[in-house]
Amino acid sequence: MPIQETIEHYQNAVVQIATKAGTGTGFYLPAYDLIVTNNHVIRDMRQATIKGRTFGKQLSKVVFTDSRYDLAFLMPPVNVNDFPDLKLGDYSLLHDGDEVLAIGHPYGLNYTATQGVISRVNRVQNGINYIQIDAAINPGNSGGPLVNAQGEVVGVNTFIIRGGDNLGFALPSSYVKEALDQYLPMRGQIVIRCPSCSTLVTPQSLDDGKYCPNCGTRIEFPKQEASDELPVTGMAKTIEDILEKIGFNVELARVGTNHWEVEQGSAKIKIGYNPENYFVVSDAFLCRLPKQGITEVYTYLLQENFRLKSTLFSLQTDSIVLSALINDLELTVDTGTTLFKKLFEQADYYDTYLIEQFGCQELLEEK
């Protein structure tokens, strides 16, 4: 299958995954009706936020985790039926030097595909075979598919050696297929695969409520109450309390550690907290500069900056951005609610006004 055709084929099957702990990649396999990713992407969460090209952000239940092989399965999105037919390839047919393609979302760069070759088809790490590849993979690629020249999934991109030059490793499809086949009869149930004996364990099958019924290894399931999952604390908790008070779903707003994205009308607002400089920054990306009459736009923005008190216009390349900046010592739920509400309302207003009055252009968005 030509590379361009492979990339296009996979774009509707590769999904973005976000939790309180970070972001990663997953891919949907129609034969199993499950999303496959790495266990370290979901990090003991009961649910994660997923987003794809054919569906918006929604919550997905984590139904299978395997810490030894770093695998996890999530339930697919609801009311989406146009996923492409991905197939698992045969790991035993791979050879050193075979061309492969790694697809994922490194550093939030959506649907990035990198080409390379298999450096070694059976690199053993901690008693597990991995496919060593030279295709560039980075944080955010975890859980994405490794694809062969025939367009088949032959591995799950799992980890890199930091400081190395394109030293990436993918879990072979043989391990993935074994786990999927083992779990399929229990599809929909919450299961942990025992790291010692690979027995599938449910909360109901635990021995004495704590141990694998087959080998006695201690098994810990995520808490049943969402509030007992890895709690959001500190300034992140304050920001999420503010967003919740305004009316946003914080689970869907999360795009990684200390980062959130929301929409107000046609404006998109990015919120970030940097604990190293103690500031919470909220940027509302409105529109792009017009092709003509830029002087008039500049004049208007400068006049508005003189009038505005808690927000400020700026430019990022040709994008007009309305921002609010506040020190974390000054941010409380009350002050933050007032500030964010004002920013969101202004963003929705200015976005439309600048386009209608000055001919500003709508922001380019990835399809």
Overview in brief:
The protein is α+β, with helices and mostly antiparallel strands and 367 residues long. The chain contains seven helices and 20 strands. The protein folds into two domains: 1-228, Thrombin, subunit H (Beta Barrel), CATH 2.40.10.120; 234-358, Yope Regulator, Chain: A (2-Layer Sandwich).
Observed structural traits:
Thrombin, subunit H; Yope Regulator, Chain: A; 6-stranded antiparallel β-barrel; single chain; 367 residues
Report on the architecture of this protein.
The protein is α+β, with helices and mostly antiparallel strands. The chain folds into two domains: 1-228, Thrombin, subunit H (Beta Barrel), CATH 2.40.10.120; 234-358, Yope Regulator, Chain: A. 22% of the residues lie in helices and 35% in strands. The protein has seven helices and 20 strands. It has helices at 3-11, 39-42, 173-183, 234-246, 250-253, 294-307, 333-358, and strands spanning 14-19, 22-29, 34-37, 47-52, 55-66, 71-74, 99-104, 112-125, 128-133, 145-148, 153-160, 168-172, 191-193, 200-201, 254-256, 259-264, 267-274, 279-288, 312-316, 319-327. A hairpin with a 2-residue loop joins strand 15 (254-256) and strand 16. The mean pLDDT is 89.
